[in-house]
Fold each of these.
Amino acid sequence: MRLIKTATLAAALALCGGAAHAQEGIDDSTRAPYYDSFKGKKVAYVPVAMGFDLTEGWAAGLKEALEPLGVTFDIRDPNWSTDAGAQAITTLISEKPDVIVVHNPDVQSYARLLKKAEEAGIYVVQVNMRSSYSTDVFVGADYVGMGQQIGERLVEVCSPAKGGSGKVAITQGVLTAAASIYQMQGINNVLSKHPEIQLVSNQAADWDATKAKNIAATVIQQHPDLCAITGFWDVMDVGTAAAIKESGKNVYLLTQGGGNRMVCDGLANGTYSESVVYFVPGQARDMATMIKQLLQLKQPAGTTKTTLFTPLTFLRKDNMTAASCWDMPTKG
Amino acid sequence: MPGMGRLSQEQIVFVLAVGLCAVFAVALPGFLTTNNVLNLVRSVSILGILGVAMGLVVIGRGIDLSLVALMAISVAWTLSLIAGGMPLPQAIAIGLAFSLFIGAVNGWFVAYVEIPAIFATLAMGTLVYGFGRYFLFDLDVVYMPPAGEPLLWIGQGTLMGVPVPIYLFAGVCLAGYLFLRYAKAGRYLRAVGDNMLAARITGVPTRPTIVLQYVLSSLIGYLAGIITAASVASMNTRVAISTYVYDVILVVVLGGIGLSGGKGGIRNVIVGTLLIGVLLNGMTIMDIQYTVQNVIKGAILLTAIVIDTILNPRDEQTAQQGDI
């Protein structure tokens, strides 16, 4: 009996003590180093230009993820000028931020500068359009794979076996942009195996809707039985869509982009038939995660190379939901 | 035109355009069809309208490098005002007023402050673009909001089978022709361009005439912008920093309006526009790569200029001024 009493008492005491301890809480020993590793760090962002869905979306996502941690986030906007962009990176190399996030206008222009930046000890994260020089991190679409998937879609939609005419056209952006070069490779990989699909036009429209419209209008004129056009950017393909609408023909328009709300609206109202979407908020999150990792691991810049390909969604009117697209962050 | 055997630049370019047309018609099936010709003219009608605006300024011995930037910004602002809930007519009125105001400021700088037109308008173009992007709207490409859809007809509609932009191009050309030929201000404009001092001595109000040139160019530019926006349901403000304004100058100069002022008319603009249109259309049909297209375009333009220089050599009188 006595033994039981003692045991009960001891157990009660132990419980009380434990409870008291639990009230005080246990400190998570990883917190301090986690927050310390971001204090006073600087991240600089050099997009091709601000002011359109992709770059604004990435900036908003990075800001949201990094600034609460005490990281300074700085945007250098070269506004479509490759020279100004190179200048900005050169200046940054001497300013020595901890991370530079770069959106390359083409595969060559920044290659040497990015190497220099890494040599200066700055982590370099490339987003969506990669340079010929691989840096610490690349986050973006697998454009070769994307081109292959697009090629396969074109075959599916236009194959004469399924009643299509087999005639397709491509509207690229700028020929030297990574998005164009790698995708063409992918598309060619597929089309070379499908002689029944005929590529009747392959033109570049400089990411401009008016040029895209004029090209599409001429191509549809020449090939009234054109089955599909695939354009390399939804913003530009507004022009392609206008040309298709004016021609009154039924041409399948397969576009691509960051999945901004305007794409869902366009799919809903029939501007586009289908869009390949690399989800921009997801890419921003990937970049933020990689930046957090780099800053915590503290490896010298350029020692590790990570590629994160963004999952692609083929969005159509019938498979999209309210959550398929994202809204542009409001400035303020 | 000096001597019967000589061809003016306008005629040379016209011959080139017709020649190219003939070659394409034979070599490219489907080039010389009604639909393709309509499509060809439609695709360059905005360029042509801008060419008329630039042409008027150049005939008055000026140049307007802010034309495209002003067009892009004032129309993009109009669209974003409509998107913000402003009634369509009011938004258009505000955009137009902005455009005319900047045009008048341009003219004032050139006529009264006496800054060379090339610098005044170059700076103004940059200023307007920056101002618009920073203060007036956030995005690079401004979309046509649903409330602006009545406008779409201007850029995408057809009337009796002919696209509306072609009518507008024709209308602007006709108005420009009548202005230069019959309006008092139009004749003053040519007089000022030909010889400003002589015009002033004979009592022409030279400074107000110069201001008028730039106001007219901003007016026509705004119209061209509305057609652009209507035709692709969006306004890409990036054209402001592209080389588009040089394409416009090219159309004007290629057609034979000398940069030294006082020479040429609307017909020259039409001829220049047609040559560019034929070239672009033919090369797109042939699916020539974009970069190669630029090479061909440049080569043909140089050819036109070389032929002109050989047939119409410069002399003391024609080469004295205005060669930029």
Amino acid sequence: MIVRFIFAVIFLCAGMFMLATATFGVNRFNKALNRIHAAALGDTLGIFFCTMGLVIWKGLSAVSGKMLVVVIFFWLASPVASHMLGNLDLEINENPGDLIIEHHEKQEEEAEK
Amino acid sequence: MSKIRKNYEKSFAYRLKQWVNGDLDIADAKQLEVQIPEKKEPEVFLNSMEQETLDDIYDERRNKLLRRMDLLSKAASVVLCVVLIAFLLVMVADMPGFGDAASPVNNEVAARYIESGIPETGAVNFVTGMILDYRAFDTFGESNVLFIACICVQILLRLDKKSKRKEVQDIKKSAAKELKKEPGEDLILQKVSMVLVPLLFVFGIYIILNGHLSPGGGFSGGSVLGAALILYLSAFGYEKTEKFFSQKTFKAITLSALSFYCLAKSYSFFTGANHLESGIPLGTPGNILSSGLILPLNICVGLVVACTMYGFYTLFRKGDF
């Protein structure tokens, strides 16, 4: 029991560390893409660690199954949201800095020609 | 054309009639012939003296008073926050504990709901029993508020397809251009929404149908359905969405849901107030098909909420359904 509790605490602490880093990064970075990178870390790994900690703490049950479903939902939804935001930033940002933008689709079309 | 007819066309009544019928746009009728000349703001060139004085006033590094005010406002905001937090914490400490039998909230109303809520409404979930049975007209008002809000947004934002005014035509053209780019044909989004949209629909329907058995109900389930619709729209575009959800379906769903709610609940209140048999079976509490009118009313509220959310999104996005 104690071993399980310790594991749960370790997982929860790791998740909180990830979420704290993500919050710090979102407020610290200047460019949208950097911020997306920071936020996506918290949304995927932070939430995974937190829910896994809770699952380990309470054991397998119907509730922990629902928590796993929540994690899967976040892992599907959050990276796609980040991807769309990044696309939008590439489209409208006039000053992307040192970014090298590669348009794979256009290159493929040219190669076909 | 007779003289009377001409006189009539000049009159106020004729123009009012035209305006009511929609033939005449008030902005067309009153087109100002005088064009207002554009004001040219004189370009300001500051000489170095003036620049110096401005810097003395607005530059933080030079103006001591400004710097002090800045520090003071920061300090004041921190102090205000701390005072507010302390105040609220004292208030929380003064409140009765959780589950305290002597707290003033636990009066005869709550006792009545808990004791005779299940036999009277048939709903295992007390909250649903309250909002859709004892206080059903309150919920009816809420769903009407949603409907009226959507109608108001339509009045403000909807583009008139018949209008020939130049501004409207321009807006329509630019909107059409935007919408051509719109769905983006983003492969990642489409694949993910292929997985997520059916799940979201099933989950929303589950929340609505389970409203009288577990936490949930029309409002939360309806918003999940609306979110699923919006996700589908942003992944696949307007053409595919309009195959199953257009303005006609919006009108039909909201109007029939609201009028069914109104008629059904009026009937049950009428019979209840006059001590008549309503003929609506309550069923065994705990079954899906139980608790009388609560399940159909939940479905009505859910449909209205989903339609309103989707309607807001499309109206703000495109100005139309």
Amino acid sequence: MKHKIFALALLAGIGLFLGCTVQGPEYVDELDVVYSVYDQKYDFQNKGTYSLPDKIVKINGKTGDEIEYIKNEYAIPTLAQIDKNMTELGWTKVTENPDVQILPAAWTTTNISISGGYWGDYWCWWDPYYCGGGWYYPYPTYSSFTTGTMVISMVDPNKISTDDSREVVWFGAINGLFQGTYISNRINNAIDQAFTQSPYLNLK
Amino acid sequence: MKTIMKKILFTLLTLVLFSTGEIKAQNSFFSLQYSMGFGMGDTKDFISPASFRGVGLEYRYFPEPAVGVGFETGYNLFYERKNYATYTQGAESLSGVQYRYIHFVPVLAAVDYYFIPDTKFNPFAGLGLGTLFSEKTIEMGVYNNTTDVWQFSLRPEIGVLFAAPGFDLIVAGKYFTAFKANDNPAQNYFAINLGILF
């Protein structure tokens, strides 16, 4: 009997110990993830100018006139942070004939794949090329993102494929920003991180 | 993985409740053990801290006083939180806090040699052969990547059986190694098990 009690006590101890789940994320910012990918054959060092829209579109599965934009209170500081990083890396912002176009978007659906590039339509208001146009990725990348992701695509408007698509030479994705508590510092930090982990964009 | 843990605990509970309570080390024994794991090689590269969440279950039958044959299974959970860092592979970079987990479940046939049978202090050496199931998970943000694999496994072991007042105990050091298979790296960990015989 003593033997069985000891065994049961040991078993109970093991059960309690195993039952204590290991520690997961405690704070929402621990869920923030920054992803980037680029075309390793692309010569960034021979480029120097970029353009940036004054709005951030929502990728929500709608096209044409139903395009939505994120609120200016969020868009303006986000676009300013992108400008700040590009300037610090030695790029010059222009409004015409840029070497690359930077197209930021907020992902509000999980049902769209980034491949195929049809969501180029979302910038039809900004650049007529994107009305029905698209782009392509010369490298493997994640095919879809969850709600709460901001994606930043850098497109070379002069690098056109045989099917009339433009190449995305750099792609960044920031996940976790639009869930939980909104903290602008987290967005700025994540944008900074996207450029920091992409040293090939540095022209200096 | 919690389902596997529940099954193991249920099996152990059943064995304890329906055992006779008599020490039967001379013919056969079941053993219930607490297990601590220490990653080695690729396992340690993936998760550095030791595992203090583990359990072992063994059965041995003695065809000869100095020879025990049987089986064993168990469970060890390795876990580590990796601070915010950037991971780059080729053209891709990913930054964030990572949570890493490995669940190990060995299922082995075993044979032991006992150096001083029928004494109160009986050291032994053994070898296990079978398979090691591992479930390796990386959580990053809201994403996670999990790999399940069964790998051929060897497990050398040394230990000792000894009689405490009222019950028999076992202390053993086990080195689990699972061989590389296809894209799955080798897995190695050392476990210290402390348990009771019944």
